[in-house]
């Protein structure tokens, strides 16, 4: 009899521009297409996606029966991008578990959305990572009115789901200032400095510094004028457990200031 799948890893994926869905010139696209072979060769029972593109005032899970709709929540891009579909099955049982563990950890109000499909922060990376769209997916929203520690604690509450074979992925961006993007081949100094600070903090396990990035990191307000694209990282980091060191599993740049840095967090000293 096969042992039940337990996962040690959580991930933060920088999903960058929606053109990741079609642009073969982006190194991050090829990284994600090779994810199963090079990064995680176990097939999860279900996937919990925390996407920067679902913002709510209180935690909300989507509880979908049947297949997900594909939300094309971007504007002015090439027509083929709007024809892409990722009809992954919903995961209503996982949505129920997410709600249970969050409420048991002090998140007093957790909503269920029974209609919302997958936004591009979820389906674009998943389309590349798991193109068969055969793994049940649940999405969890971020709360931009809260801080990094709040989202880290959300991740800590979700950590036990890994023992149920749930792959927890935060999908956002290591840097995200759309007004600063351009065509320069060189990377803006503020973006480099913030990106390097974040890498050093994650690789050395400085979780509290990451939680307080807005006060600790150089150029934090320039790198993230609004925080929704970094909060999925806090959730993934919290779900990995205290004292976890991150591993940089991909790094590339686009448009002079958009970091595609992606990280793996592996739980340490897990009880048997």
From TrEMBL:
Single GO MF annotation: oxidoreductase activity, acting on single donors with incorporation of molecular oxygen, incorporation of two atoms of oxygen
Listed Pfam families: LigB
Residue stretches making up the Extradiol ring-cleavage dioxygenase class III enzyme subunit B domain: 10-265
Superkingdom, taxonomy of origin: Eukaryota
Protein source organism: Nicotiana attenuata
SUPFAM superfamilies: LigB-like (SSF53213)
Cofactor(s) this protein requires: Zn(2+)
Family: Belongs to the DODA-type extradiol aromatic ring-opening dioxygenase family.
Protein name: Extradiol ring-cleavage dioxygenase
Keyword Zinc: yes
PANTHER family tied to this protein: 4,5-DOPA DIOXYGENASE EXTRADIOL-LIKE PROTEIN
Alphabetic keyword roster: Dioxygenase, Metal-binding, Oxidoreductase, Zinc
InterPro entries documented for this protein: Extradiol_dOase_DODA (IPR014436), Xdiol_dOase_suB (IPR004183)
Signal peptide boundaries: none
């Amino acid at each position: 009899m096969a042992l039940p799948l337990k996962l040690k890893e959580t991930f933060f994926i920088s999903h960058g521009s929606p053109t990741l869905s079609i642009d073969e010139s982006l190194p991050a696209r090829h990284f994600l297409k090779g994810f199963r072979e090079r990064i995680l060769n176990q097939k999860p029972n279900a996937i919990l996606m925390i996407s920067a593109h679902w913002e709510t005032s209180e935690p909300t899970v989507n509880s979908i029966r049947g297949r997900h709709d594909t939300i094309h929540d971007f504007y002015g891009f090439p027509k083929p991008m709007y024809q892409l579909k990722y009809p992954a099955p919903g995961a209503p049982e996982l949505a129920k578990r997410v709600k249970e563990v969050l409420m048991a950890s002090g998140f007093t109000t957790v909503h269920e959305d029974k209609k919302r499909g997958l936004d591009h922060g979820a389906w674009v990376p998943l389309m590349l990572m798991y193109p068969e769209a055969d793994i049940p997916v649940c999405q969890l929203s971020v709360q931009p009115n809260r801080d990094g520690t709040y989202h880290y604690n959300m991740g800590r509450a979700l950590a036990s789901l890994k023992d149920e074979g749930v792959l927890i992925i935060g999908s956002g961006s290591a840097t995200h200032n759309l007004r600063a993007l351009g065509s320069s081949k060189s990377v803006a100094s503020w973006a480099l400095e913030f990106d390097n600070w974040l890498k050093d903090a994650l690789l050395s396990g400085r979780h509290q510094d990451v939680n307080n990035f807005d006060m600790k990191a150089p150029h934090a307000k320039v790198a993230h004028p609004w925080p929704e694209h970094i909060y999925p990282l806090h959730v993934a980091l919290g779900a990995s457990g205290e004292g976890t060191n991150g591993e940089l599993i991909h790094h590339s740049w686009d448009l002079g200031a958009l970091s595609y840095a992606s990280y793996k967090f592996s739980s340490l000293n897990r009880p048997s």
